[in-house]
Design a protein that fits this description.
6 strands, 113 residues, alpha+beta
Length: 113
């Protein structure tokens, strides 16, 4: 993956909203500029990766899974006024592990700085 990661410099990301998926996953959402940058980054990596990849172009940070409607409501009430800022400075390749239904990092590489 080094062949792709050297093309990108670290970039700033802001997560400032919450959302949820129908399956009960609760997550933090990026602001408009961060979402645009992350989508472009993810699309480029997927298009040029030598590895087979499941395409996911919905940038978010999952913080809970399998919540029912009552728990989703509580999460939305408790987690407000999000303003999480960080620099994305590496690329992690993850593999889905079926028996735990989670992804595990199998390789990480720094972005060019």
């Amino acid at each position: 993956m080094r062949s792709l990661s050297f093309l990108f410099v670290p970039f700033h990301v802001t997560l400032n909203n919450t959302g949820n998926f129908r399956n009960g996953a609760f997550f933090l959402q990026p602001d408009e500029n961060s979402e645009k940058t992350l989508r472009e980054f993810m699309s480029y990596v997927h298009e040029h990766s030598p590895l087979p990849a499941q395409t996911q172009n919905n940038p978010h940070l999952t913080i809970a899974r399998n919540l029912n409607n009552a728990h989703l409501k509580i999460a939305k009430e408790k987690i407000k006024n999000i303003d999480l800022r960080f620099t994305c400075d590496n690329l992690a390749i993850r593999e889905f592990i079926p028996h735990v239904r989670q992804y595990e990092i199998i390789h990480r590489t720094d972005l060019n700085s």
